[in-house]
Amino acid sequence: xxxxxxxxxxxxxxxxxxxxxxxxxxxxxxxxxxxQIYIGAVTCLETYLSDAFINTVLSNKEYLKSFxxxxxxxxEQKIRMNELFTYFDKxxxxxKEEMLxxxxxxxxxxxxxxxxxxxxxxxxxxxxxxxxxxxHDLVHRNGKTKKGEPILVNQTVxxxxxxxxxxxxxxxxxxx
Length: 176
Prior knowledge:
Strand content: under 5%
Distance between the termini: 18 Å
Order of helices and strands: HHHHHHHH
Helix content: 55-70%
Structural class: mainly alpha
């Protein structure tokens, strides 16, 4: 229900910047903080993509129709004519439930959904995809690669991630 998705994103990114500028004497704690900020930056992106998509679709009947006609998971589903109005009355609820199931860090899929529903082309997201993959290791391997090598996450790295994600969202939001 977050219709202020861009403002929410901006506020969170601003808070992450403040946290990134904190210096903690204990190096282990400092390293943990930087990893968490990195993770938070990618989470802000996912939240923006989800909130922007869902709220924009649900705010416009044409977008809702476009979503139903283009969403891949609906392509094989069949309804019987005697169920038509039952589904019609629940269209927004069905759409919202399906949109909430989507994993919004899968950028190729999300890019296709934005293109098919809103006719918006994502900015280049190759770097962002790399950040998402690194975030996966930060979350599930506590900051190490599959080979067990530590991933360097410092203030400079975090600042770069925040700046690139912010630029990506800013361009996408302008088009939306």
